[in-house]
Specification:
Blueprint: E1 3-7, E2 10-13, E3 18-25, E4 33-39, E5 46-52, E6 55-60, E7 68-73, E8 78-83, E9 92-99, E10 108-109, E11 113-118
Parallel strand pairs: 2-11
Antiparallel strand pairs: 1-3, 3-8, 4-5, 4-9, 5-6, 7-8, 9-10, 9-11
Amino acid sequence: QVQLVESGGGLVQAGGSLRLSCAASGGTFSTYTMGWFRQAPGKEREFVGAISWLGGRPSYGDSAKGRFSISRDNAKNMVYLQMNTLKPDDTAVYYCAAKVRFSDRFDYWGQGTQVTVSS
């Protein structure tokens, strides 16, 4: 069973930065596509971005393009979300997720970490 634990959330002022981390255990991390999602109160879950098991160029949702960056460290079983130029609209619970090879959906999810951006 894969376990994902997010950390790094908190309160930040608009224009600031945060780096979220996600620690994975219980599986073969290097074979998973890793993704970040977020959900704000009263809104649907939103895709933030993902990075394949091969690494390479991540994909991003529209709200993240140009401001957020995803990276991974397979040696440490970690994936990161660097968020810059944060806006109040970025306030949400951020979730890390893992998709096993050949799966068509994200199979494992973390508990989430709260990010609050004040104006």
